[in-house]
Amino acid sequence: MEILIISIIKSLALIVILLTGFAYLTYYERKLLARFHVRLGPNRAGPRGLLQPIADAVKAIFKEEIVPDHVDKPVYLLAPALALIPALVAFAVIPVAPAMTLFGRTIDFAVADINVALLYVVAITSVGTYGVILGGWSSNNNYSLLGALRTASQMISYELPLGILLAAIVLSTNIGREMGTLSLHEIVLQDRPWWLWLWLWLAFPVFFIGVLAESNRSPFDLPETENELIAGFQIEYGGIKFALFFMAEYIHMITGSALMATLFFGGWRGPFVVPGTWHGALIGFGWLFIKILALLFLFIWVRASVPRVRYDQLLHFCWKFLTPLSIAYLVITAVIVVFAG
Amino acid sequence: MTIPLTWYLILSAALFAIGLFGVLARRNAIAILIGVELMLNAVNVNILAFWRYIRPDDPSGQVFAIIVLTVAAAEAAVGLALFISIYRTRRSINVDHLDALKG
Amino acid sequence: MALLLFLALALVALLAAVGMVTSRNAVHSALFMLVNFAVYAIFYIMLNAQFLGVVQVIVYAGAIVVLFLFVVMLIGGEIGAVRSSLRRYTYAAALILGALFVAMIGLGIAQTISTDQTVAGAPAAGGVEAIGMALFTTYLLPFELASLLLLAGMVGGVARRYKALDED
């Protein structure tokens, strides 16, 4: 019973943090984009525009709820929820700070530290596609259907290099230990030699491109291109339902950044972190937070600098370049593990 | 764990029969394929229940389930590719209309 | 507690299965399929096969159902009612055959397996390590054959596509 209560508290805390994170990520993005464009960005609501996300949220909630006549109603209403829920629950297995001992009990800073954590993340993010596909289909609109079709093929395609790279990372957890692991907690704790860090960082650009495509971010935001598909799968959605799709995309960005920080940059590890103490947990969380912010900056930087690709270029790039590259990476990693592990 | 093994077996038999019904009653090729997928998965529940209750120390049961899963995936991929090419030539994937080989 | 959970999940699985084979719209069918397969994943986790539970979600939710939806969106969602004008008795015949099948299996289960069969032995070898060990040693040949099957499926799918391009 006690474990159930602790899990519920952790889950609620995670949801609140992620939703706040989403709200301020929009602010972060708008401010940064404004900097890239040499303008000011939101600066009216509150000091330096800090209350802007709250104003946006209030606006979205109080908009009139419109359900068009020609939609498939149950699926139409289900789709935004199906987009948001996987985005929220995927974060559950990411260790956000080292465990600490408080009042004689060990507190573990992941909602669920399971032994197949990495597979869990893959599974949950693959469910995230459904929100977009079903939203596009149920809207009964040609543009949104095209958006849904694009999402389906884009997601399936880019899961390939991501999955193969994840397999390579899992393989590399064999180095310096008796057995590999799928647990994110243990991946963070793994002592990697310096050459392994360098080797893994080689894979980071490919992984990052995959995550960009999976979270429908520019330059791969083809499911919702404004100028050809007039917002794609989101056309028929307004008010809070639109906001849910929006939230899903941004929380996917946060989760993707947290996952990349955990796999490639050591998660909560950093100087001054003493595992087991309360300040260690705090500083560890701070390190992870800084890493996530840096990766999110990368997302926004790419959005501000790179023009959107054409659709066939997107798929060719994945199937003819990223996938072979990641297979080669997996093979070389396997050889390295055999000789060094 | 106090769930008797028979419960899993009966559930899986019922699901298998629903899948069988789908395969026999529907005439649309996609609906038939959906029924087949249901049957394959019912089998997997069976395999895993037997593994857990009879031979939990031997991972063979899980290996069988993994192979069933692989076959199901390959089957869906090839089947759906075939349906698309049938649709391109016949404008229908109703299996009653696909009788070009009828003597 | 576990019994109640099982019954509730079983009910969901059965209802979703019925929805799958009876709904007129292929997208609804695929959605019921998704629910059904998610319940299976929970069953696998209850049976201590966590790896298979997660793989179930990856393979089915991540790939197969998306593929179904993709094809349905390409060739239209209307898959027609269960009853068909061409074969008037298929529906009744299929219903009877399905019911007979359940009765037969149920009888077999009731006769051969004692009702008090519960979990045997120590905590199960549900770990990824054990499965990996078995897959790459004892079952290496079936594993390779399965990968060959997947490759054949992939080549087949691509070949169909090229043929279709030629015909255009």
What features would you highlight for this structure?
heterotrimer, B: 103 residues, mainly alpha, Helix Hairpins, C: 168 residues, Four Helix Bundle (Hemerythrin (Met), subunit A), 3 domains, 76% helix, 0% strand
Describe the structure in brief.
The complex is a heterotrimer of chains A (341), B (103) and C (168). Chain A is mainly α and 341 residues long.
How would you describe this structure to a colleague?
The complex is a heterotrimer of chains A (341), B (103) and C (168). With 341 residues, chain A is mostly helical. Chain A is built from twelve helices and two strands. In chain A, strands 1-2 form a two-stranded antiparallel ribbon. In chain A, strand 1 and strand 2 form a beta hairpin. The radius of gyration of chain A is 21 Å and the shape is globular. Chain B has a single domain, classed as Helix Hairpins. Chain B contains three helices and no strands. In chain B, helix 1 packs antiparallel against helix 2 (29-54) and helix 2 runs antiparallel to helix 3. The radius of gyration of chain B is 17 Å and the shape is elongated. Chain C has 168 residues and is an all-alpha fold. Chain C has helices at residues 2-22, 26-46, 50-75, 90-112, 128-136, 140-167. Helices cover 76% and strands 0% of the residues of chain C. The N and C termini of chain C lie far apart (59 Å). Chains B and C meet through helix 1, helix 2 and helix 3 of B and helix 1, helix 2, helix 3, helix 4 and helix 5 of C.
